[in-house]
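Sharing a chain and its predicted structure for anyone who wants a worked example. Both blocks are below, sequence first, tokens second.
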Amino acid sequence: MRERADVTTPHRIVFANEKGGTGKSTTAVHVAVALAYQGAKVAALDLDTRQATFFRYCENRADTQKRRNTQLPGPVFDRCHGDTIEALEEEAARIGEGADFIVFDTPGRDDPFARHVAASADTLVTPMNDSFVDFDLIGQVDAETFKVRKLSFYAELIWEARIKRSRAQIDQNKREMDWVVVRNRTGYADARNQRRIDQALTELSKRVGFRPVQGMSERVIYRELFPSGLTLLDKGHLGELGTSHLVARQELRNLVQNLRLPMPGKPEAGEPVRPVTKPVKEPA
């Protein structure tokens, strides 16, 4: 596990993929809640001003907390209001003050704010489905051999950002970026397709330097949990879970572990969990 390079600055976890439908926001919410359950102070900023799935999920969670008169661990959260990079950074500094982690959820499209936070990530998480349609975001393959022919624009963008970060790491003591490609919804891919994607990801990861890890399988329960804002980690609030749900919970725990995040010290025994809150208000 990596050491925390700067305890005064929250570790930036950026969930980014220019293609929608990869489970990005659902994964981001579950990771943020999982970190809060482990005692970390988590902030979150949703940069998708149109759909705002992450923000809405957390709003639903806060409403459930109030309705059931209970406390649920989760992030302090808000949606992006600024229209410049400088304003974005001011919002991130405000909401991330005192946090161990700040999670950014980005739109499923090309977006200047998404590019900025992706390039400044300490941990960049790119969820993808096990499909060559999704793989095309990071690399193009030969139609006959399925060998990687070239990097995509997005992969080149992250590659260049990592090079700049490596230089800054020496000059300004910056953290090194860890790029993690998370394979979601693998249950829908057939065995031959999975083998081909395995090979292509392994080949490309050696060229670009990301780490492929297993993510969250396609399950109806993720869509069912959205209105309440609950997650699979909220024991005691979900009723009786089936075997597949327990397997899904373990998948999530494995994912968080494989992200290799620099966790702060565990809270003292008896210390209350940090409840999810309503969005922070704009300063007067």
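Comments welcome. Residues 1-7, 267-284 have pLDDT under 50 and may be disordered.
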